[in-house]
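Comment on this:
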Amino acid sequence: MTYADPRLVALYDADNPGRDDHDFYRALAEERDARTILDLGCGTGSLTTALTGRGRTVVGVDPSAAMLDYARHQPGADAVTWVLGDYQQAPGCQFDLGLMTGNVAQHLLDPDWRETLRAFRGRLAGGGTLAFESRNPAARAWETWATEERTSRKTAHGTLIEWSDVTRLDDRTVEYAAHNIFLDSGDTVTERLQLVFRSRAEIEADLQAAGLAVESVYGDWSRTPMSDDAPVMVFVARAR
C-alpha cells in the first residue's frame, strides 16, 4: 500500500514481522555479488537499509512521501539514496540487481506494469538481475481479506479501529480498502488500492517482451519449485 498517513506507516513493520522474503533477497544480492541495487517500492526501507554495506550503492524509490520519511530514519538510512516517485524518477545509471518486494508488482496497473519492466531492463547492467514476487491467483488470497467485524488495538496514537473490504473489479483485479479510525482524534483514514493478480504465464510473457529472460520461478522463500497451489510466485530474471 502507498500509505499516506504517517501513523499507519509507523505500524507497517510491526504488522509484517518475520520477513522470510527479506532473507531471500539479501541472499540473492550476496550470490549475485550485487554492487549496485535498485529497490523500487522500497516502503519503510527495512530491506533497503539491510542491503547496504560491503561497498554497495543502494537506491530506494517509493511513491509515498510518508513511507520515505520513515525510511530516512531507519538505522543505516544515510547509506541509501532515497527517491520519491516511481520507475520514471529512478536514476538512469546501471544496476546489478533490481528488486520489487512486498508484492509491488501487483500494485502496478497496465500499462505501468509493462513500462516498469522495460525501465528495469534499461537500468540493468548486462546480465543484471531483476527479482520480485506476486501472489499466485490460483490461491485466491483476496477471498480472506475482507473483515465483517471491526477490531481495535492500542497504538502510540491511541486506540485504532480497523476493518477492510474487497471488491472484485474484473477476472484479475481487486480493489482493497483498509478502513481506520483513530478514536482519540476522531480521524478516519481509508487506504484504497487496486491489485492485479497476473498469472505466471502472463508475467513470464511480459518479462520476455521487456528483454528479461526468466531464470527461476519459486513457490516460496525457501526456493521450492513453483506449484499450482503455491501462495506466491517468486521470479528471478536476467537482462538479455
The helical segments are 6-15, 20-31, 46-50, 65-71, 104-107, 112-123, 200-209. The chain has a mean pLDDT of 96. The longest strand covers residues 124-135. The first helix runs from residue 6 to 15.
